Amino acid sequence: MVQQHQQELKKQLWNIANTLRGNMSADDFRDYILGLIFYKYLSDKLSRYCDGLLSEDGITFVQSSDDEALINELRKECVENLGYFIGPNQLFVSLAKRSEKHEFILDELSRVLNDIEQSTTAADSADDFNGLFEELDLNSSKLGKNPDARNKLIGQVLVHLDNINFQLENSEIDLLGDAYEYLIGQFASGAGKKAGEFYTPQQVSKILAKLVTLGDDGTARNVKSVYDPTCGSGSLLLRVAKEVNSTNLEFSGQEQNPSTFNLARMNMLMHGVRYDKFDIKNDDTLEHPMHIDQRFDAVVANPPFSADWSANELHLNDDRFADYGRLAPKTKADFAFILHMIHQLNETGTLAVVLPHGILFRGGAEGHIRKHLIENKNYLDAVIGLPAGIFYGVGIPTVVLVFKKNRNSPDSKNADNVFFIDASNHFEKVKAQNFLRDSDVDRIIEAYTKREQLEPEKAEKFAHVASLSEIAENDYNLNIPRYVDTFEEEEAVDLNAVATELSDLEAQMQAVDTELSDFCTQLNIKAPFASSNKQDKA
């Protein structure tokens, strides 16, 4: 029943988005519809919370609007426990009803969104709400040529959303949070590479989350904190929470794009993460890391592939990079992100990151860093090749790298090897997009968990435990085909049978030539070629 309602909710939300955006790009409209959904969520959540507080008094939150002293008490209570406040007359349902009557509500809506942010001033939640709605420019010409046109469009969105039951009263399910993430994914697929940069497909998120929450024995380990240095919409962080079945983790992340930064904070709150349990920052992670003194149980990331960065020589004095002697190339920041994340990992933590395939074998500075990570640090635990074309707008094959700092500890089982998995041919193709199936994800995780104990029939041409000496012999080139032999030997060819077949074909051709020559003779025309009989006589 829950799944059915969820599917219906997703369908409704996407239809609203697709129908109402008109000529506006999906990427632009995303900010409006997701922002307004978030406003409805905050409004409905606060209204239910206040109704609960006032239930003994026999009144509702809306009915208390004229009692200034009571509203002030409720404000304090809400800011302390929810992190924000919305007045009774500012609730989503109130503006939606006015929109239904075709009233002009744009100015009031703008004030409400500003007031929500202002309600957190001097509160512990201020950083989490500051600038949260800044992308919702209600005066933008993208919404319409004039104020009336813009008011009509926004009003339609409010009315449509107000008619949807998000079932917030059911704490056991997260319909709204999942639907919200579904919309993010839909907008990503429609907007191509630009949106795909911040959205990680759910199945890839699941793989990364499972990898960082597994202990060496294959059971769930105790994860209290998780970090993503390029967190995008926050989907990876939330996926880790889902794997450990808790939103009580300490979530930390950094995102350079302001719009996506706002999206991540909204996404956290929409999934029931308390404002004091997450710390999402807006800045360039490599140049201005905001969590540099913290260490985390789990680190996950889908950083922008082969991005540009400063590669400033001063970074060689940075604790993140100093020990490696070389910096990642200016046009390929992949290893800069890896070293940054390793720095943020605690001594018993696990890092899982998805990157382009080139990271495995490119030479120069990258080859130097790769060798140091394996030979001197021994941090690399696994290399998992994924299919090409599973990221929106990116057709290149990708790879998941797993790092652990405690591989050299006395109780480590895998200190002398690195585990390779080739899952590049395990996917389902739907139109132009490739998708990992649940069975593909399960096979990867099973192989990683069992490692040496994997049954031969499952390991063959899929996984390989490579010793560190084997990797050294390959000059620290991690290209997966060097370790996992996926070559399918062709069936042996019977040369005698081929010779016989060719001889038979030659005889048939000579017979046809003779027949055609005879026809030409009967028609008293010159044959285009000599018959085989005449050739024999000659």
What CATH calls the topology of the largest domain is Rossmann fold
Per DSSP E runs of 2 or more residues, the count of β-strands stands at 11
Helix content: 40-55%
User: Uncertain spans, ≥5 residues at pLDDT below 50?
Assistant: 191-198, 532-538
Mind explaining what this structure looks like?
With 538 residues, the protein is of the alpha/beta class. The protein has 3 domains: 2-189, N6 adenine-specific DNA methyltransferase, N-terminal domain (Ferritin, Up-down Bundle); 192-482, Rossmann fold; 495-537. It has 19 helices and 11 strands. The chain has helices spanning 2-20, 26-54, 68-81, 92-100, 106-118, 126-129, 147-162, 175-191, 193-196, 202-213, 235-243, 258-270, 334-344, 364-377, 438-450, 456-459, 468-473, 495-522, 532-537; strands at residues 225-228, 250-255, 278-282, 296-301, 345-356, 380-385, 398-404, 417-422, 428-430, 433-435, 463-467. The chain has a 9-stranded mixed beta sheet. Strands 9-10 form a two-stranded antiparallel sheet. It is globular. The relative contact order is 0.07.
Chain-wise SSE layout:
Layout: H1 2-20, H2 26-54, H3 68-81, H4 92-100, H5 106-118, H6 126-129, H7 147-162, H8 175-191, H9 193-196, H10 202-213, E1 225-228, H11 235-243, E2 250-255, H12 258-270, E3 278-282, E4 296-301, H13 334-344, E5 345-356, H14 364-377, E6 380-385, E7 398-404, E8 417-422, E9 428-430, E10 433-435, H15 438-450, H16 456-459, E11 463-467, H17 468-473, H18 495-522, H19 532-537
Parallel strand pairs: 1-2, 1-4, 2-3, 4-5, 6-8
Antiparallel strand pairs: 5-7, 6-7, 8-11, 9-10
Helix pairs in contact: 1-7, 1-8, 2-7, 2-8, 2-12, 4-7, 10-11, 10-15
